[in-house]
Design goal:
By secondary structure, the protein is mainly α. The protein has one domain. The longest helix has 27 residues. It is globular and about 25 Å long.
């Protein structure tokens, strides 16, 4: 599933709205054990364009302490 969501994000990265929508969906589908690697990959790939979107989405998705 992780490779699939990566492929989707690469394809929709041209649009802020689509990227945000697909990132939210991706976080519902990837395993908790994959989250750290996925988050790192996202920042490596998309930080220049979607930094604020990712900061907001990953902050909302952070596990409660």
């Amino acid at each position: 599933m992780l490779e699939y969501v990566k492929m989707i994000l690469l394809k929709v990265s041209f649009s802020k709205m689509l990227f945000e929508k697909e990132l939210r969906k991706a976080l519902r589908h990837i395993l908790p054990t994959e989250l750290s690697a996925f988050k790192s990959w996202c920042y490596e790939q998309f930080a220049r364009v979607h930094w604020t979107v990712m900061n907001r989405i990953f902050a909302q998705h952070a596990p409660a302490a």
